[in-house]
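Structure (tokenized):
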């Protein structure tokens, strides 16, 4: 039996890109899925395609009650949540001097607070059931900083710090994995509001890898024996230097 078969996996940001690729790969391996994002039409279409073992709900990760209610719906339907893929994120990069304060707030709300709300929504249940796995999607921007990426990188460094703190606090109880993708073809650059950065990103992303490369890493981390915790994975396209 595949180690993933029957596992209940909650994924935030499942309506496109990495979250959607994870949903597809995990469904193929027999996982039961709890999918959240804001775009209901996308989630409904994906769920219809993936079959019966999928629950979805419109979920804005900046709203703690919404994330809590997604997890509760998952527990009601499937009895437990085994794995959380904390994936929802935005990347409206800009120079600090450009003063895009709404973009800063958005990144902090989605990329940091959303990750914390996800953990909060599942951790009690995982501790009570004596097992669980939290997978946080950070970035190579969580390993290094470049001009324009200060705030985005700040949020992704924070994701790694939160992952490591959670790992230490839950040692022996809950597995924690942080995944740092390099360039992945997805809708992420659509969140960029500064035209010069959007144009630059479009160039950079010509060398991007498919979201399946990250879904493969998620599958790898979940598939390990219960006593093995894969704590950090970095995946870049071969051509990416930063
Ligand atoms: P996409 O833009 O394709 O996917 C982002 C997902 O996040 C969407 O499903 C979107 O759904 C969801 N999302 C955004 N805001 C919210 C919100 N407020 N509440 C709930 N869901 C939200 O990009 P990726 O798949 O690339 O991004 C996934 C993760 O991977 C992000 O955390 C990103 O930072 C990270 N990453 C991506 C890299 C890349 O090169 N693409 C590289 C490194 C890390 P909806 O709009 O329907 O709510």
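Design, position by position:
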């Amino acid at each position: 039996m595949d180690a993933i078969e029957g596992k209940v996996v909650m994924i935030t940001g499942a309506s496109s890109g990495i979250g959607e690729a994870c949903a597809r790969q995990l469904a193929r391996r027999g996982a039961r899925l709890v999918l959240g994002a804001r775009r209901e039409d996308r989630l409904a279409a994906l769920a219809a395609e993936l079959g019966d073992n999928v629950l979805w709900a419109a979920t804005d990760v900046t709203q703690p009650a919404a994330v809590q209610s997604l997890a509760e719906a998952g527990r009601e339907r499937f009895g437990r949540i085994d794995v959380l893929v904390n994936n929802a994120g935005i990347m409206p990069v800009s120079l600090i001097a450009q003063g895009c304060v709404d973009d800063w707030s958005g990144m902090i709300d989605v990329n940091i607070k959303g990750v914390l709300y996800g953990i909060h929504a599942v951790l009690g249940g995982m501790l009570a059931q004596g097992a669980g796995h939290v997978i946080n999607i950070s970035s190579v921007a969580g390993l290094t900083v470049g001009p324009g990426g200060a705030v985005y990188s700040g949020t992704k460094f924070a994701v790694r710090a939160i992952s490591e703190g959670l790992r230490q606090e839950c040692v022996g109880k809950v597995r924690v994995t942080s995944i740092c993708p390099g360039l992945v073809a997805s809708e992420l650059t659509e969140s960029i509001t500064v035209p010069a950065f959007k144009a630059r990103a479009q160039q950079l992303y010509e060398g991007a890898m498919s979201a399946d490369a990250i879904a493969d890493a998620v599958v790898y981390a979940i598939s390990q024996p219960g006593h093995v915790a894969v704590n950090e994975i970095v995946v870049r396209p071969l051509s990416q230097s930063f």
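Reviewer-requested clarification: Strands lie at 8-12, 32-37, 54-58, 83-86, 133-137, 175-181, 232-235. The chain is about 45% helix and 15% strand.
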